[in-house]
Amino acid sequence: MLKNWIVKAKTINNRSKGIHNRASYLIDKNRSSHRFNKIIPLVNVAKNKNNILRSIQEDQDSRASNKGLSSYAVEYSFNLPQDIPKPTPEQWKSICTDMLISLSDSLNKERVKTTYTDVNGNVRTKTTGWIDKDYFTPKELSQVCLAVAHNSDNSGNYTGPNHLHLTVGKVCKGHRLLELSRKQVLNNLKVDFNRSVLKHLNVNNKTYKPLNKNTGNKPLFLARQHKLLDSLKSREKVALNKLRELMSIFNQSMKEFISQSLKQESIEIQNKKATEVGDSIQSIPHKPSQKEAIMQARETAEEIESLVLHEAIDKVEKTTIKPKRRRRRRARLAEPI
């Protein structure tokens, strides 16, 4: 809930130079503050700028005292948040017309002054009321106004609220608008701006819920800096989350790599041990089986039996055969067949 939509007023200083600078600023697309804005002129800015300066010059020439104005205009800014429907050029024009009617009603009045004597005997004047006058119409007032709307574009960059600039010259039809800076005029504009937004945009400030609360009244450059800091913080948070995800993936990959390396190392160690065991087994003398042992025993027995037989024959021959007969036998065996 908002009591009123934001309406601000400021005086344009530096007289004619200030009017020229302000008129050029409002429609200049190359300004850094207008980089992401869509500029919507609602009046002929160049023509109305000349009307303001001409009316003030004529007023000064017509006065015998030649007392000039310290400032030539007052500017009002009517601001709407970006989270409500963006006004179209036609809607801004209708809102601007309503604001000119409100200004005309507030300024077409004349003070009712009375004089009195204070306790010190000094004669003073005070305002006791107002009388409605017809100094000018809203259409005539619009001839000495600069009305330009600034809407944010669709780039997503923060450009401040959508707003309307209404710069009103201090002289209209030879009448000095000295009440432009009066607080009551600003309060009337706030009330009429609430009604106009409800009428043309169907948005009620009483039921509106702002997205950002307790933001305070900040200059636009400061609000942009805070917005930039918030975006940088959000980007930093996103980057940190991505970094955490990458670190978790990296840690998981390292765990898998280490486990695979340990498995491979254990397999190599097992293969090495198996090779060593095989080599040690091969170095052990071969233990024959039962069948081979029997065969070897038989062969050994046969060899022993043949040796014993030969020794027995030799012994018999030595005991029964005489040496002469033995020599004859050997000679006979040595003869060729």
Quick summary of this structure?
The protein is of the alpha+beta class and 337 residues long.
Write the layout of secondary structure elements.
Layout: E1 7-12, H1 15-26, E2 37-41, H2 45-62, E3 73-80, H3 89-107, E4 109-117, E5 123-132, H4 138-142, E6 145-152, E7 162-169, E8 171-172, E9 175-176, H5 183-201, H6 220-283, H7 290-320, H8 323-334
How would you explain this protein's 3D organization?
- Strands 1-3-7-6-2 form a five-stranded antiparallel β-sheet.
- The model has no long low-confidence stretch (mean pLDDT 82).
- The protein has eight helices and nine strands.
- It has helices at 15-26, 45-62, 89-107, 138-142, 183-201, 220-283, 290-320, 323-334; strands at residues 7-12, 37-41, 73-80, 109-117, 123-132, 145-152, 162-169, 171-172, 175-176.
- Among the domains are: 7-113 and 127-209, 2-Layer Sandwich (BirA Bifunctional Protein, domain 2); 294-334.
Multimeric state: single chain
Estimated share of beta-strand residues: 15-25%
> Can you tell me the CATH topology of the domain at 7-113 and 127-209?
BirA Bifunctional Protein, domain 2
CATH architect. name of the domain at 7-113 and 127-209: 2-Layer Sandwich
> Radius of gyration, Cα only, in angstroms?
58 Å
SSE pattern, N- to C-terminal: EHEHEHEEHEEEEHHHH
Strand order of the largest sheet: 1-3-7-6-2
CA-to-CA gap between the ends?
146 Å
